[in-house]
């Protein structure tokens, strides 16, 4: 019996084409809550960007920053997993040697970026968000940094995570950048924190996603559903592949499993 369902935002709830949530998905969320099934967000977005995308809809709780920050519908913290300060210090040194590489830092309900290039603009356009304010990287010191976003490609991962962010790991859902969180955090770990808080068993859950950062939770939830617009790698991690976000994928999967 499904008691809780976790939804990614970009490419799952929100279409990359229309930048909106399909009407069928909004109806599905409403019907789920009417049946007493709890619905949760599980996103790589920070709180400051999440509410712009889904804040008009009611959810029972939120997993943000790929599991690094989990909180209730009334914004009571369930879990926070910060990036170690020693990693921040090494990244400040690294950026002084590679000032062309933009980094975003998320702390509390704020965020900032070190510099802006074409990759930053392309990603902002893709998910229709505003750019964070530009500030010196040194402002990351002495703050509770919950996530970093690095605008470098995957072939640089070995250098960055072996020598600089040694206590962190990347979560990629788009090739131009990586969401970076403290090692041990993930959407699947975020699910565990939320389920413990609400007293729900893992076997009674579903999760929907489309990106590489969704792979841990799709394999972890009782039923993992990949959107039809997901990559082959994401689809392989899921129990079921539904249609795309623009083809009523969420509603179709919920009907397939008899949840609605």
TrEMBL record:
Alphabetical keyword list: Hydrolase
PROSITE patterns, A to Z: COF_1, COF_2
Source organism, top-level taxon: Bacteria
InterPro entries (UniProt xref): Cof, HAD-like_sf, HAD-SF_hydro_IIB, HAD_sf
Keyword Hydrolase: yes
Any Pfam family the entry gives: Hydrolase_3
Annotated GO CC locations: cytosol
Molecular function GO terms recorded: magnesium ion binding; phosphatase activity
Coiled-coil regions listed in the entry: none
PANTHER family: PHOSPHATASE YKRA-RELATED, PHOSPHOSERINE PHOSPHATASE
NCBIfam families in the record: Cof-subfamily, HAD-SF-IIB
Protein name: Cof-type HAD-IIB family hydrolase
Origin species: Phocaeicola coprocola
